[in-house]
Amino acid sequence: xxxxxxxxxxxxxxxxxxxxxxxxxxxxxxxxxxxxxxxxxxxxxxxxxxxxxxxxxxxxxxxxxxxxxxxxxxxxxxxxxxxxxxxxxxxxxxxxxxxxxxxxxxxxxxxxxxxxxxxxxxxxxxxx
Length: 128
Description:
The protein is mainly alpha-helical. It has seven helices and no strands. The chain has helices at 2-11, 17-28, 34-38, 41-55, 59-66, 71-110, 115-118. Helix 1 runs parallel beside helix 4 (41-55). The chain is extended, with a radius of gyration of 19 Å.
């Protein structure tokens, strides 16, 4: 669900918490609230970054506003900017996840958990 929320946030030019809650309800048939979504660090960070870009308070938005492009190139520039934002967000998120992985690996080895134990598959849900 977190990944889907991040996709919704990065694709929406005018995002609000209410719209995000509605999108989660529509796509996942889950009833949630803004407060629940805000507790997810990745969702909150992506929301804040996109909101800053859309509101024009980020350096990238100011630079984009100052560019004067013909309308034919503006669409392409907007698409490129959106992709660059997504790439930057994913790279930062990947870096944070890699750091978290290293922390978990270190802690696991400190507590005597082997790599083999960590790689064991999850148990499948038993059907009744």
